[in-house]
Model the fold of this input.
Amino acid sequence: MKRAARAIIIKDDNILVMRRDKFGRQYFILIGGQVHLGESLEHALLREIHFETMVRTANHKLVYIEHAEAPYGDQYIYLCEYISGVPVLHPEAGERQINAGGDNTYTPLWLPLSQLDNVAFRSEKLKRKLLRHTQQGFPTIVQEFSSTID
Done:
C-alpha cells in the first residue's frame, strides 16, 4: 500500500499549499509526497517540505490519517509549526523539472484560509476538516478517515 506524508503549515491566517495545474485542471493539495521504501514517515515529511518549499518547520505532530483509494493510499498528515522561509521549489526538486514541460506545473504558495472553501482541494473531506480545525483547534488524538480523491 502506498503511503504519503503531508504537512499542514499555517502562518498569519494562510496555509501553505501546492497549486497544481495539471493539463488544464487546477487544484490545491497539502505539501508532501510519497514515503520511499524503508523511509520513516518523519523523514519523508521533512524531505518533502524541504524540496517542495524550502521553508523551515518544527514540532511536527500527526493529526490525521486519510485512507484514500488506489493509487493514493494512506496519507499521514502532520501539523507543523512554521519557523521561516519563503516557499519556493528546491533547485533539485523533481517538480521543478516537471514544470519545465509547462502542461503540468507545481507552485508552492500561501493560500489565505479565507479562500480555502472556494478552491478545488485534494481531498474535499480533508478540506472540510482543515476548515473546521483551523477555527476550533486541531485534534489532540489522531483522526482517521476514508476519502475519495477525484
Remarks:
- Helices lie at 41-53, 94-99, 124-136.
- The two ends are 18 Å apart (CA to CA).
